[in-house]
Amino acid sequence: MHEHARRMLGTQFNLVEIPDCNIQARLSQDLRASIRGVACRTRIDSQFIDALPNLEIVASYGVGYDAVDAAYARSKKIIVTNTPDVLNEEVADLTVGLLVSVVREIPKAHAFVRERRWQTSEYPLSRLTLRNRRVGIYGMGRIGRCIARRIEAFGLPVAYHSRRPADGVAYDYFPSLLELAHAVDVLIAIVPGDASTVKTVNADVLSALGPEGVFINVGRGTVVDEEALIGALRTGTIAAAGLDVVADEPKVSENMLALENLTILPHIGSASVATRTAMADLLARNLIAWFQSGAAITPVS
Ligand code: NDP
């Protein structure tokens, strides 16, 4: 757990820390019965919840709470909280940074200088450009809107897909992801990793993006059919991709690592000291508010 959250929680509660979710093996029955709240950044499944008979609240570190079995928690009347909004701008910054890096080959150009090759040759022109592109955003939620604002400032038109049109948003709306992919040549995924989004970025969607297509994923790795993505990058069905998330994190397949036109980041969307501290703060305030007033600050819906 983040040190800031540990410090805040330590002033209010007795803390029991465990390094993984193997709670049955790690804690005695008496100790488990005394636990009323959980702060987590790991998987919380139904067995974990069942092992804590007096649990009232699970405070998850991050806005995506796919690691927590929230439906099961709800069935037991246990509150789940996440850390929305405080990371929006940070994640949006990283997203456009990754997009520009992929299109203008910034990591490769840096390696070129570091390998001292600049002294003897010029870096080749980037095949791709952001100019004259049309950008599709898959997920026009809190972070999607922040990404869209940045893309607008780049002078590029924005379109989007979500299950319903987003309130107060004037960008072109596409009721299906496939239609959106046909209409754009950059697709940015920023949807949650739940059952409704699993492998929705599939071979058809990538093919619709086209040979100049660029795919960026900052949502969850499960959203992508990774075999289809590897195939599309290998055959030139799309031009390039950038991922901040992969399905089986932190494992990255050798097939992915071998691709020249794929840039992978180690899930760092929100990972600055300032933003992670803000997330830790909100996590701790949720637990404190719950036990002081009976109302959490940011419960998931
Ligand atoms: P929001 O809930 O605000 O937005 C989610 C958006 O996705 C909404 O527009 C929603 O619209 C849309 N959506 C959800 N399910 C579907 C679906 N099945 N089909 C189409 N659209 C869908 O979430 P945030 O913007 O705060 O965060 C989004 C996700 O980004 C998080 O859940 C997390 O997984 C990921 N994330 C990744 C980070 C990183 O470090 N890489 C950091 C932070 C977040 P509608 O419901 O109308 O369909």
From TrEMBL:
Gene Ontology terms: cellular component: cytosol
Keywords: NAD, NADP, Oxidoreductase
Keyword Ion transport belongs to the record: no
Domain D-isomer specific 2-hydroxyacid dehydrogenase NAD-binding: 96-269
Organism domain of life: Bacteria
InterPro entries found in the cross-reference section: D-isomer_2-hydroxyacid_DH, D-isomer_2_OHA_DH_cat_dom, D-isomer_DH_NAD-bd, NAD(P)-bd_dom_sf
Family stated for the protein in its record: Belongs to the D-isomer specific 2-hydroxyacid dehydrogenase family.
Name this protein carries in UniProt: 2-hydroxyacid dehydrogenase
Gene source species: Oryzicola mucosus
